[in-house]
Amino acid sequence: MLIIGLDPGLACTGWGIVAKSGSRLSHVANGQVKTDAAASLAERLVVLDRELTDVILTHHPDSGAVEEVFVNTNAQSTLKLGQARGVCLLAIARAGLPVAEYATSLVKKALVGTGRAEKSQVQAMLKILLPGVQLAGADAADALAVAITHANMLGSHR
């Protein structure tokens, strides 16, 4: 089973795909979709949708998960993040895949054991869980963490 995880952002959305076979996980691919800050919001959302659709069509995941939005102190930033998150949910759902959503604190707890883990702790755990993984960046790392969390949740529901 292939699982795609997405870490939404308007400037940069991370994606990560893991394969689950029994209780074993392995890295398939990861990357980041960056949008041009000079482009209009609509244009940036189109780029995000097109790039995520390409990733899904290339790798054919069976299931997907998206990190939930945390409320920012800046309302404009929160709205833009929510719109990018909507595109992420749409890309997975449009491909006919089941999609789950996980809070950042749950993802951190699933990987590191505490919901207040630092990004560096999450990345260190990824290197243990997915030996040899080359991370495309911090957002891709977060997306892989979301995919792993979903893979583990799928296992606990069966």
Task: Outline the structure in words.
- The chain has 158 residues and is α/β, with parallel strands linked by helices.
- The protein has helices at residues 41-59, 75-94, 104-112, 119-129, 138-156, and strands spanning 2-7, 12-21, 24-34, 63-67, 99-102.
- The protein starts with a strand and ends with a helix.
- The model has no long low-confidence stretch (mean pLDDT 94).
- The active site is at 7, 67, 139.
Percent of residues in helices? 40-55%
The poorly predicted ranges are none
| Class derived from helix and strand content | alpha/beta
Overall morphology: globular
Strand order of the largest sheet: 3-2-1-4-5
Enzyme class: hydrolase
Organism: Novosphingobium kalidii
Main location: cytoplasm
Binding site for Mg(2+) 2: 67
